[in-house]
Amino acid sequence: MKTTKISILILSLHFLCFMQINALGQGVGASAPDFTLSTVSGDEFTLSDHTGKVVFLFFFGYACSHCLANGNNTETGIYDAFKSNSDFVALGIDTWDGSKSGVENFINQTGITYPVAMNGSSVQSSYSTTYDRIIVIDQSGTIQFKATSNATSGVVSDAKQVIESLLTTTSTNHFGNKEQSLRIYPIPAKESIFIDNPDARIKYSNFEVLNLSGQIVLSGDLNYIEPGEAIELPLNGLDSGIYLLRLNSETNSYTKRFIITH
Amino acid sequence: MNKYKYIKLPVIIILFSANANSQGNFRGSNLLEYQLGNIPGLKPEHQSSLYDQLNLSYNYKSITLQTRIEQYYPSFDDNKSYTSISQYRAKFKTQELSVTIGNIYPSFGKGLLLRTYEIPGSIWEDRGYRIRYGFYKDLEGAEIRYQLGKFKIKGVYGKVLDVTLPPTLSKNERRPDLVQGAELKFQHKKLALGSIFMNHKIAGNSDNYVSAFVKSRITKNLSLYTEFALKAGSDAELKFDNDSSYGFYLSLNYVKKSLGVSLELKDYKNFSIGSGISDPPTLIKEHSYKLLNRSTHVPILTNERGYQLEVYYRLPNNNLITFNHSIAHNEISESQSHLFNEFFAEYQTQIGGQVFANFFLDYSSDPFTNEDNRYSGGFAFDIGHNKASSIIESQIQFVERKVIETDKFYNFYFSYQFNIRNKLTTSALLEISKDPFLLNENEEYAFYPGGTLSYRPNNKHHIILFYGKRRGGPACNSGVCYDVLDFQGLEIRILSHI
Fold first, then answer.
1. Is the distance from CB of B329 to CB of B307 less than 8 angstroms?
2. Which residues contact A45 (CB under 8 A, 6 or more apart)?
3. Does B170 touch chain A (CB under 8 A)?
4. pLDDT in tens, B42-87
5. Structural domains for chain B
6. Which residues on chain B are in Cβ contact (under 8 Å) with A76?
């Protein structure tokens, strides 16, 4: 009886206390928070100045060992591949707020040649990430890739694919007039989601479902979305979580976040 | 506004469960820490925060229930405050079977594939989030252990916590790694053979790992442990080439009379799993001396090979000589190849009946951090008085670090501690550093003066007060290395057992 009493008490408190947590987060599909930081070379980097470009961010701690080991992956795997593209920008961000000489030591050890910003601890929290992590932001300022693992060569390879696809897309995420009334439901979804547009006929070539890291976990062909005729997309048993639905046409793409709960 | 209203939750729990002792066994502990201060150099200079961690445990026959409640209330930002039941655990245990659900600390083998841990009493705080919470990396899920004769099997399923992300973020973000696996162990006399299978999922990727280990007492004096773990190829066949991911560890221990020798070997390649769920043996001596502990080498799981040799010899009259040597070779890329090495020697002796003394010398070279030469030395005297004791400790370290030019600087540590009847302890600390990484412009030295007062009114309570400036930086504890923030101000810590 007393064991039951304690168990009920603990369970009650569990639910009560969950209500006290502010679940903050900036996942794939969210707008990238703007920031301004000073770089080691003395320049200022403001994210919003680079709207229209694909922005690669590498969050590191200047004395973090695995960051020191993985920093070179970002140089050879990402920056070397895209630095000649004028629509691409890379920035390293020291989230341990190290001194200038500490950050210079990091640059020296990793061989990073792209700009590196100092005192980025507050940017790390606004992106709800940690050190040794990669984030990719698309031309419209939307987060398209957010790594949950250290920046190993495998993660760098995943980020590279996302950057390549963004740089080859002529226009992304700009809501056209036709998409203004596009509906995705139910939210949260379980087994499938429905796409419906009551106002206009839209032609898409395919759809992609991306996870929080920007990896495509589901894809398929699409055709017209007719007014008043909802299209059902089975979610094929995807785990609970936040996802991104991307609808691609030949010239455009439309992206919307949704949640799956089981 | 009553910022600390949620402190009443632990009190309510204690009151409600006070009569639980009549059946079963009820235990609890509480850690409360109040800070008035900030990271040196940050404004405002004095800001207050309160962190509390309550652990409750109830045991009745084969069943154990445990929970942990954490809360944090800073004066400077309501968005950083939280109250949460951060852990819960239910365990059923018989002689052969053990089933645990909730927040658990499972590991496979020596941690090459999976190691979860807790550093008791440690509070984690990151410069970006400025949110304080308990320092533990647990798995939320289930573990089953079953023993049948000479066979032991362990099954684990759950999501591992990324300790660098605070409790204010969602569970999906904090627990990105899903692990499911099993360990089978066969024990015959002094020989144990084991195998592990683990599936790891993160961000839509799924990988399989296998491992085998041997543990043996070869002779009366010699024991061996070795483990080899490998990521299985996508075609479900084992691969072993330049792109493969594997970890190898071997340990030999020899003890005879006054002599002890241990030799460990490691070879880790592409073995950083997910957000960091693997934590293989470091094979770098974890020093208790402050300056050496801070100068440690953290294994680079992308590519690291090396060994550690430790020899000790006990002489008469409580004299002990210890020698340690370790090597770690990292081939990160074609242009990044580093060789860490360290030599450490320590002499412990008893002088007269009341004085215990330690002396050490250490040399290390860590090109991975550009610190080509580090020379360290120090001593500690533990002096017994009548119903009291005092400890004097001093260390100094000279470092040569080449960033653009070669910087030569030193770190200095001194502490004096006076203890009365194990109840009241007072200590004074001073650290001085000329490390350019720590100095502001036009600053020649970084000073870290501080004092602590510690009082144990009884065996259930312990109050510790710190005032001053504390140097942070890398710290290692139980094989886990992490970064600690600097702090300047007042800190009060109260530990209680219920």
1. no
2. A36, A37, A38, A39, A91, A115, A117
3. yes
4. 989 999 999 999 999 999 999 999 999 999 999 988 889 999 999 9
5. 1-56+70-83 (no CATH), 94-255+265-279 (no CATH), 282-498 (2.40.160)
6. 333
